[in-house]
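Figure 6 in text form: structure in, sequence out.
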């Protein structure tokens, strides 16, 4: 299994990028959203990857964050959703958007992705709604494991280690955006955990957190918990 690719961008097209890793070129298919964040040819890049293996095919798919990669794998478990459809959904909504749409049962948001019809969108929501809280909670674990940072490339001139074996790393625009997405996932996971500890069920807690995060995207965990509690409070 190839879980991560780090190297230099050789070229990119409308649906994939060729990454040179010490003289070996890897074709990595990405969503429109990920492709838009990649640096120009010749610069360093790093992507988390998922390898699709079939009898007559090997394909690598690239993602800015581990959370996005996990959603890709989960989306592909739905009947009628292949790799292309999964990338279309992630490219349209992003990992956080997919979490919110599925948790809130927003079929319209899912079918906004290219090539996704209403029946397929509804199937995605129905089959994955109970799994969404697990993925949202996983976001916090992944953020802690990676220090709230996405796949991060080395400097373009340090893709091969320096003589002292300690290459200097920099944060690209894509890395910064990926870090922000991973941090947001961590905040939502913390809020979800707090609500679960208060006795709320996974589904209702996830729905409240997703709705609150949609209303205030930059909220800290404490604020997100307060907003979610207001949404969970009995009406009337």
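Output sequence:
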């Amino acid at each position: 299994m190839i879980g991560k690719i780090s190297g230099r961008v050789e070229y990119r097209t409308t649906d994939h990028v060729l990454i040179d890793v010490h003289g070996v070129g890897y074709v990595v298919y990405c969503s429109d959203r990920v492709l838009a964040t990649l640096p120009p040819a010749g610069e360093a890049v790093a992507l988390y990857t998922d390898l699709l293996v079939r009898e007559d095919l090997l394909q690598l798919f690239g993602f800015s964050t581990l959370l996005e990669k996990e959603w890709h794998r989960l989306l592909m478990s739905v009947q009628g959703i292949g790799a292309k459809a999964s990338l279309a959904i992630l490219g349209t909504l992003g990992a956080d958007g997919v979490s919110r749409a599925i948790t809130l049962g927003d079929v319209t948001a899912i079918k906004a992705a290219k090539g996704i019809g209403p029946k397929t969108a509804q199937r995605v929501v129905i089959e994955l709604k109970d799994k969404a809280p697990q993925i949202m909670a996983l976001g916090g674990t992944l953020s802690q494991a990676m220090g709230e940072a996405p796949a991060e490339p080395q400097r373009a001139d340090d893709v091969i280690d320096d003589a002292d074996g300690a290459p200097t790393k920099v944060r690209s625009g894509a890395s910064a955006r990926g870090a922000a997405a991973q941090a947001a996932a961590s905040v939502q996971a913390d809020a979800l955990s707090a609500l679960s500890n208060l006795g709320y069920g996974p589904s209702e807690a996830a729905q409240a957190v997703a709705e609150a995060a949609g209303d205030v995207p930059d909220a800290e965990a404490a604020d997100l918990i307060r907003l979610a509690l207001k949404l969970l409070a009995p009406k009337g």
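Caption detail: Residues 119 and 176 are 36 Å apart (CA to CA).
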